[in-house]
Amino acid sequence: MKQGLFPSFLFLWLVITGCNSSLKDIPTPTGVPINPANLILATETTSIEAHSSDVSVSDSCHLPDQPAGYTKPSYQLDVEVDMNTHLIHVLESVSYTNTSIKMLKSIRFVVDPNWHDGYFHLDKLSIQADEKPSFTLSEGFLDVMLDRPLYPGCSLVFNLEYTLTLPNQTGIYGYTDHQTVLTNWFPFIPPYQDESGWQTHQPGNYGEYLVYPIADYEVSLTLLPESQQLIVAAPATVYESENVNNYRLENARTFSFAILEGYKTLEKEVDGIHLNVHYRVANPRAAHSALKILSSAMTTFSELFGPYPFDTLTLAEIEMFDGMEYDGIFLIGEHVFATYKGTSRNLLTLLTAHETCHNWWFSQVGNDQAVEPWLDEALATYCELLFLENEYPGLVGWWWDFRVNTVKPSGIVNATIYTYPDYEQYRQAIYLRGVQFLHAVRTEMGIHSFNVFLQQYYSAGRDRVVSSEIFFEILENVYPDGVDELRAEYFGRQ
Hints:
Elements: H1 8-18, H2 57-60, E1 74-82, E2 87-97, E3 104-110, E4 120-127, E5 135-138, E6 141-150, E7 155-165, E8 174-175, E9 179-182, E10 192-193, E11 197-198, E12 215-224, E13 230-233, E14 239-241, E15 244-252, E16 257-261, E17 264-270, E18 273-279, H3 284-304, E19 312-318, E20 323-326, E21 329-333, H4 334-338, H5 347-357, E22 365-367, H6 374-391, H7 396-404, H8 423-445, H9 447-461, E23 464-466, H10 468-478, H11 484-490
Parallel strand pairs: 1-12, 18-19, 19-21, 22-23
Antiparallel strand pairs: 1-2, 2-7, 3-6, 4-7, 5-6, 8-9, 9-16, 10-11, 12-15, 13-16, 14-15, 17-18, 20-21
């Protein structure tokens, strides 16, 4: 085929006539400063030259059944879990719209399980009519080359078939005798930055490294063999159909779930939100306390920031250390339940409030967790204090001593997950110095102005991937005096 550049008039004609929206209607993604040392861009081998003879507006530009103006990725996941072999077979369909101002010659998928040999096996990949597209699968990234460029505002459907081999391990990915946990388990398309490319990073030794766009999910889950003993802890209401668990989760960063054996469940309805606590080792008193905290935390943060975004909220006790957040669901380690002493002065209270709060600062207001982890982790830790101030004000002094003061935090708040050599230094800087910074800001602004700021930040940042610059821009809109001196004190060189 003859290679050549498109004439400018042809490009404009394709955009204006062939896509669902004009250039002026395409939202420009918000991004964060990227550390070039950590950013992984598609190599030259993953891109191609545009071929004018290959462009077909009718089959490559838009999806006939896609609503006008729809720009979120949409995932359909048909999942079959073999509980005996611990193999998971997945059929995945991804509807993707190019929301950048550039035409894309390749599409990147993040495939977190592929960082480990033998965890992920790609059986089949197709793009609409293209049954065998060129691709590279290396480390945690799948780069798919397009034989026709994807223009701004235009859409494609990717179909993947793959098998996951789960490791026998505790934690947030794998199986044990009592649990099968799947987080960051399916390939997803990360945000694309016009200046930097795909917003992807190498894993660090600790902390989260993934950047998720907001997306919609439809998941069908089949467990083999069928068992009445199993409980599925999921982030959405289940709709059963012929022994298949069906879920729909909208406006979320990811879809995570756990399959539990030998567990019990506590349930409660609060303001139309269905709450679940799944527990095994915990005694009933700890589980009931967790449900109470879950309910109070959801209500408190809804009043402080804005409405809780989903129709369910699930807590699952897991064989793991500490806690981990996802949209509509979070996991807390068995030892947190086991050390519960029957009062609110315990780690169960703090972690339940912390992980609940991530449904605001992570799930809805997203950020680059590798480059600016303080934007969600410092805020979620500060939410522990906000929760206690509203529900257990007598414990505020205890919290400062237990959580912050005895540690004597040090470090810069705006560090990356790659900055510090160990987790303890990272935690002190990001979580605890971050808490001190936020409290100093609130003290300077006043509680009322600070609460107004958090509400405006939530409203403006919802469904986006935001940066610290956006954080401070909104803060100064509420508090024009600014907090430059505090920023200089707690942050590294700007």
